[in-house]
Design brief:
alpha/beta, Beta-Lactamase, Rossmann fold, six-stranded antiparallel sheet, five-stranded parallel sheet, 22 helices, 13 strands, elongated
C-alpha cells in the first residue's frame, strides 16, 4: 500500500476521525475530498456540505482565513500559519503536499490545532525539555560520581581543575575520535584513558594498553600488528595476534606515544587514517574497529621541530587534546588524598596511623614533582614506619620539609635583605646547612641537593670564611 492508498482505506480514515486535531484532505485542484470530525466541529459545517467544495471558494466565504491548502498548493511546499476559522477561533495550521509515483502533486493535507491548546502544548514541551535537561545534568553528575568512587585515588577532591577534566571526559567518552592525553609523569593519564573507555559505548569490549617505550623497537611492530605463520625465523608456527587485533571493538591505549620510533609512527598514522594495518608476513590489509587514545609526558610540538615526531600524526592524535593537571595545580585536593591514602594503607598494613594537621599543611605546600604516584609512595612509607603518635612535620622526607621551612625563612629574609644577591646567598646557605645536618656525609648531602660533592665543599668553605 502506498501513501495515496492510505486515504482510501476506511481503517485509516477511522483513525484520522478519532484525532483531536482537525484534518482536511483536498486534491491537487483544491477540492475537498474528506475532513475529520474534529474539523467539522471546529468550523461548524457538516462534512457532507464541505465535500467537493474548493478551498479557494471556502476561503472567500470566510470558512477559514487563510486557506492553508491553497498556500501549500501555490507555494508547492509545506506551510504553517495562524489561521482563523468561521467561528472566529484561531488555530495553528500546517499544510503539506503528497506526491505521486512520478513526482506530481496528488493530495494536499491541512492539520489544525486550537491556538490556545498549541501554546499550552509548547509551554509544556519547553517545561519538559527543561526538566529533561536537568535530568541529563544530574545523570552526568551521578555518572562522574560513580566513576570517582570506583577510582578514588586519582579523582579525590572537587578542585576546578579536576571538575574540568571530568566534564571533558564525560563529553568525549562516546565520541569515536582519537584523544591525546598530556601531562607530567604520575598525574594519572592511564587512569583517565581507562575512564574514557569505561564511560564509552565500547566499555564491554577490550581495553588494551601498550607502553610504547617499554617494548624493544625490533619487537614493536609484531606486538602491535601480529605476524603470519613462518613470517620470520623464530616465529610461532601458528602466527600471532597483535594487540591491535586484541583490542577489536574496544580501545587501544598507546601510552608514552612520544617514544614511538619514526618508522612505527607511519604505521600508526595509516591505522588512524584508514583503520587498516598489515600483519608481518601478510599481503592483505586487515580492518581495525578500535578507538585510539594516546598519552605522553613529552612536548610533542618540540619533537616535531626536532623532526623526531611526525606532524601529521600529531594532528591525527590530538582531535581531542586533554592536559591532565599536575598535583600542584589542584593543591586544594591534596589534603583529601592524604587522608585517603592514610586510610588505605592503615587497612592494608593493619595499622592505626594518624597524621597531624601541621604535617598535612606541610605536604599541601609541597609541589609533588612525582604527582599522585609520589604522594602515594610517601604516605605508604610514613604509615609503615609510623608509631602510635600522630605523624609530625619532622617525620616527613627532607625534600618536603625543606620546601616548607625554606618558604618560612624566605618570608623573613625578604624583610631583612637589602639586595637580591644577598637574599640568594642567605637562602642558599640556609638550605645547604640544613641538608648537611640531615645527611651523614658530604657525598649524600650533595646527592640530595643535586650538585657535585666538590661544589658542595666549596660552598661550605665559603660559609666558614
Amino acid at each position: 500500500m502506498n501513501d495515496l492508498d492510505l486515504f482510501s482505506d476506511s481503517r485509516f480514515l477511522t483513525f484520522l476521525d478519532q484525532l483531536s486535531i482537525s484534518v482536511f484532505i483536498a486534491d491537487r485542484e483544491g477540492e475537498v475530498i474528506w475532513n475529520n470530525k474534529c474539523s467539522e466541529d471546529g468550523i461548524g459545517i457538516k462534512r457532507e456540505i464541505l465535500k467537493g467544495q474548493n478551498v479557494w471558494d471556502l476561503e472567500k466565504k470566510g470558512v477559514f482565513t487563510p486557506s492553508i491548502i491553497r498556500l501549500a498548493l501555490e507555494n508547492k511546499k509545506s506551510v504553517i500559519r495562524v489561521q482563523t476559522v468561521k467561528n472566529q477561533k484561531q488555530q495553528i495550521a500546517t499544510g503539506n503536499l503528497i506526491y505521486g509515483a512520478e513526482g506530481q502533486i496528488e493530495l494536499a493535507v491541512a492539520l489544525g490545532q486550537p491556538l490556545d491548546k498549541a501554546i499550552k502544548d509548547i509551554v509544556q514541551f519547553q517545561e519538559l525539555e527543561q526538566l529533561l535537561q536537568q535530568y541529563s545534568t544530574e545523570i552526568k553528575k551521578l555518572r562522574i560520581n560513580h566513576v570517582q568512587q570506583k577510582s578514588p585515588d586519582s579523582f579525590i577532591g572537587k578542585s576546578k581543575a579536576m571538575e574540568y577534566v571530568m566534564e571533558y571526559v564525560n563529553r568525549i567518552a562516546d565520541v569515536p575520535a582519537t584523544v591525546l592525553l598530556t601531562g607530567e609523569t604520575g598525574v594519572g593519564k592511564s587512569v583517565i584513558a581507562r575512564l574514557i573507555h569505561t564511560m564509552s559505548i565500547r566499555k564491554n569490549h577490550p581495553f588494551i594498553s601498550v607502553n610504547c617505550g617499554s617494548i624493544p623497537e625490533s619487537l614493536l611492530e609484531s606486538e602491535l600488528f601480529g605476524y603470519e605463520k613462518g613470517a620470520f625465523t623464530g616465529a610461532k608456527q601458528s602466527g600471532k595476534i597483535g594487540l591491535v587485533k586484541a583490542a577489536e571493538g574496544g580501545t587501544l591505549f598507546l601510552d608514552e606515544i612520544g617514544e614511538l620510533p619514526l618508522n612505527m609512527q607511519s604505521k600508526i598514522l595509516q591505522l588512524l587514517q584508514d583503520k587498516t594495518y598489515l600483519s608481518i608476513g601478510s599481503t592483505t590489509h586487515q580492518t581495525a574497529n578500535i578507538r585510539i587514545i594516546a598519552a605522553t609526558n613529552r612536548l610533542l610540538e618540540h619533537m616535531i621541530e626536532e623532526r623526531r615526531f611526525r606532524e601529521d600524526l600529531y594532528y591525527r592524535l590530538s582531535v581531542f587534546p586533554l592536559k591532565v593537571p599536575a598535583l600542584k595545580e589542584r593543591r586544594e585536593d591534596i589534603d583529601k588524598m592524604i587522608y585517603f591514602f592514610v586510610d588505605k594503607f592503615n587497612e592494608e598494613y593493619v595499622k592505626n596511623c594518624k597524621i597531624s594537621n601541621q604535617a598535612v599543611e606541610t605536604m599541601v605546600q609541597y609541589d609533588w614533582p612525582g604527582n599522585i604516584r609520589e604522594l602515594e609512595n610517601t604516605i605508604e612509607r610514613l604509615v609503615v614506619f609510623s608509631s602510635e603518635k600522630p605523624i609530625t612535620p619532622n617525620e616527613l622526607p627532607a625534600s618536603i620539609r625543606n620546601k616548607k621551612e625554606l618558604q618560612s625563612s624566605l618570608s623573613l629574609q625578604l624583610l631583612e635583605t637589602e639586595s637580591l644577591n644577598e637574599l640568594l646567598d642567605k637562602v642558599e646557605k640556609e638550605f645547604i646547612l640544613k641538608t648537611m645536618r640531615e645527611q651523614p656525609t658530604t657525598r649524600q648531602a650533595a646527592k640530595a641537593l643535586g650538585i657535585s660533592q666538590s661544589t658542595l665543599i666549596r660552598r661550605l668553605q665559603k660559609y666558614k670564611e
